[in-house]
Design brief:
By secondary structure, the protein is α/β, with parallel strands linked by helices. It has 3 domains: 141 residues, NAD(P)-binding Rossmann-like Domain (Rossmann fold); 181 residues, NAD(P)-binding Rossmann-like Domain (Rossmann fold), CATH 3.40.50; 82 residues, Alpha-Beta Plaits (2-Layer Sandwich). Helices cover 31% and strands 19% of the residues. The chain is built from 13 helices and 16 strands. It has a 7-stranded parallel sheet, with helices on both faces. Strands 2-1-3-4-5 form a 5-stranded parallel sheet. Strand 6, helix 7 and strand 7 form a beta-alpha-beta unit. Helix 5 crosses helix 7. The longest helix has 21 residues. It is elongated. The two termini are 14 Å apart. The structure holds nicotinamide-adenine-dinucleotide.
Length: 412
């Protein structure tokens, strides 16, 4: 079976618009797959400009600045998929995209390694008290002393949240000779010799360095506060490269000034400036042995490259095979193609009776279905149908007329 045989309609008719300086890696993926009509613009577009540009576009790539509103989506009659070449999808009106059957993809995990590496680097800097020595040297003071400086080797790292990033930090930390422990609400298989600890209190009591890698949810908001910091080992180091809402900053400041914590590295804040160069204030400024960074944990050239590859391949898989895995709007289906068939992709409102109408109309016309996959979400249903290649055009025109159809495509 050759999955590559499935393609959407002629590639020269597919228009791809990429905004906001999306990486060369993404452009190369599209062009090497045979799509020559790739238009690249360096900046974001206003709603008005986007409406003008988007009319004939099949695939749209954006980063975080372009807002995709309902009005813009209504102007995009041919749009099949939006690729957010970044971590989040807040800039897209997902509800409208879902109702209109437009797939929305992003790259939530492409910068995992960038964050994990930096956490190890920060741990070394803080345990050696480099921020203080660096600041003193800049001020013209020679601070040559070993007191209060340690190696990472043999120390205990406590990871809160053993997901994609937490588990990578775990592997790198073990390579540095650390003993790794983690706390997670889920039971997670340990990598290497790491050990899952069942309570946050127990983890805090045993850790020399604590690193947060949890998402921002109701259960994690302010989970680090006066009460939880009370259990921290005296002189421990604290790292938050996860989300700003997780830490009560005044309580963290208190723990740092009292000496309960001997250092911290913080990349994320409850309120962050929107623009580069904007003023930034935090209660943690000017504290000794504290590293503050402007939410750059995942910001590397490699991460941008990986985002380019990840999102463009998801968009191409959807365009060419109907695979919706990773979409925030179209229910996830990822199935191989069947030999000698053509594939029909049918997106419809999720109301009772649509699937039975699809099956009835095809059987009444003696069109045999060789493969059928259905997934629904609260708003829409997505059916992938593999039908005999000789009857696919007829099947396609019948399915376009089915009640509650939002979008239908034929891949051949
Ligand atoms: N600083 C940056 O630039 C940057 C870059 C990438 C990701 N992040 C952030 O890092 C965090 C982790 O990202 P990820 O990709 O590893 O996420 P992930 O979803 O893969 O892992 C999160 C883990 O946290 C666990 N968890 C959830 N609630 C918990 C709780 N109350 N207590 C303990 N564990 C809990 C989950 O079970 C999961 O194992 C996220 O908040 C993400 O936004 C920051």
């Amino acid at each position: 079976m050759d999955q590559q045989k499935l393609t959407s309609y002629p590639k020269e008719k597919i228009n791809i618009l990429l905004l906001e300086n999306i990486s060369d890696a993404a452009v190369a993926e599209f062009t090497s797959a045979g799509y020559a009509n790739v238009k690249r613009l360096s900046g974001a577009l206003s709603e008005e400009d986007l409406i003008r540009e988007i009319k004939d576009v099949h695939l749209l790539g954006i980063r975080s600045k372009t807002q995709i509103t309902r009005k813009a989506l209504e102007a995009a009659h041919k749009l099949q998929a939006i690729g957010c070449f970044c971590i989040g999808t807040n800039q897209v009106d997902l509800k409208s995209a879902r109702e209109m059957g437009v797939a929305v993809f992003n790259a939530p995990y492409s910068n995992t390694r960038s964050v994990a590496e930096l956490v190890i680097g920060l741990s070394i800097m803080l345990i050696r008290r480099i921020p203080d020595k660096n600041a003193a040297a800049h001020e013209g003071v020679w601070m040559k002393e070993a007191k209060g400086s340690y190696e990472l080797r043999g120390k205990s790292l406590g990871i809160v949240g053993y997901g994609n990033i937490g588990s990578q930090v775990s592997v790198l930390a073990e390579a540095m000779g650390m003993n790794v422990f983690y706390y997670d609400v889920e039971t997670k298989l340990p990598l290497g010799n790491a050990v899952q600890i069942r309570s946050l209190q127990a983890l805090f009591e045993m850790s020399d360095i604590i690193s947060l890698h949890v998402p921002s949810t109701k259960t994690t908001t302010n989970m680090i506060n006066k009460e939880t910091l009370h259990y921290v080992k005296k002189g421990a180091i604290f790292i938050n490269y996860a989300r700003g809402e997780v830490v009560e900053l005044d309580d963290l400041k208190e723990a740092l000034t009292s000496g309960q914590l001997s250092g911290a590295a913080i990349d994320v804040f409850p309120v962050e400036p929107e623009k580069n160069g904007a003023a930034f204030a935090s209660p943690l400024q000017k504290l000794p042995n504290v590293i503050l960074t402007p939410h750059i944990g995942g910001s590397t050239e490699e991460a941008q490259h990986n985002i380019g590859l990840d999102v463009s391949s998801k968009m191409l898989n959807y365009l060419e095979k109907g695979a919706s895995f990773g979409s925030h709007t179209i229910p996830a289906i990822s199935v191989p193609a069947v030999d000698h068939t053509h594939r029909i992709l049918h997106i419809h409102q999720n109301v009772p009776g649509v699937l039975s109408e699809i099956n009835t109309v095809l059987s009444q016309n003696k069109i045999n279905i060789l493969g059928q996959y259905l997934k629904t979400n609260e708003t829409i249903g997505y059916v992938v149908l593999d039908v005999d290649s000789k009857l696919s055009k007829e099947a396609f025109s019948l399915l376009r007329e089915v009640n509650h159809t939002i979008k239908a495509r034929l891949l051949y």
